[in-house]
Amino acid sequence: MEGFKKPFYRKARSSDLDFILHAERACFNSHDAFKSHQIRHFLENPFHSVITDIITLDGNSIGWACYFTRKNSNKIRLYTVCVLPNFSGKGFAKSYLQKRIASFEKYDAVLLEVRQSNERAIRLYEALGFTIQKKLPGYYPDGEDGVRMVKTL
Ligand SMILES: CC(C)(COP(=O)(O)OP(=O)(O)OC[C@H]1O[C@@H](n2cnc3c(N)ncnc32)[C@H](O)[C@@H]1OP(=O)(O)O)[C@@H](O)C(=O)NCCC(=O)NCCS
Known about the structure:
Distance between the termini: 26 Å
Bound molecules: coenzyme A
Order of helices and strands: EHHEEEHEHEE
Helix content: 25-40%
Shape: globular
């Protein structure tokens, strides 16, 4: 743990596209990483149903996260989160998610899906109070099973 160093977050802008692409390529395999047209779509967010955050440390971008909501829904879905490998394992994702989830006052629950093999992310979500709600057989395009996790707010 870095001790006193705490990450912050801000809304992502269209000028963050290159950073997000870089983070996706650094953190995910080529099948799972979002492509630039997908990221652009999230950033343009025409229906205000997508929340995109840049995670920062000392003013530098170290990761990003994306959430989906639906009008009149009391649930929010954490669609993706990543922290650059150079900064991982220092508690930054945990600290960011704790703060961000606490800001979702109008929702009753946060949902997410994660690959069954992503033990690191599952452990992180469990440490944040998420529990496995359901197994999702063959959920991913390569056939891997997923798990749906939920945290009641
Ligand atoms: C998953 C990810 C976001 C975690 O970010 P991070 O900043 O490294 O996570 P933290 O340092 O905040 O760790 C928080 C928890 O994760 C777990 N964790 C962290 N490093 C770990 C490691 N090397 N091995 C196993 N678990 C680990 C621990 O439970 C830790 O809790 P603790 O500090 O109470 O022990 C980051 O590793 C990442 O971007 N991975 C690739 C993308 C991804 O898989 N995203 C999630 C799926 S969408």
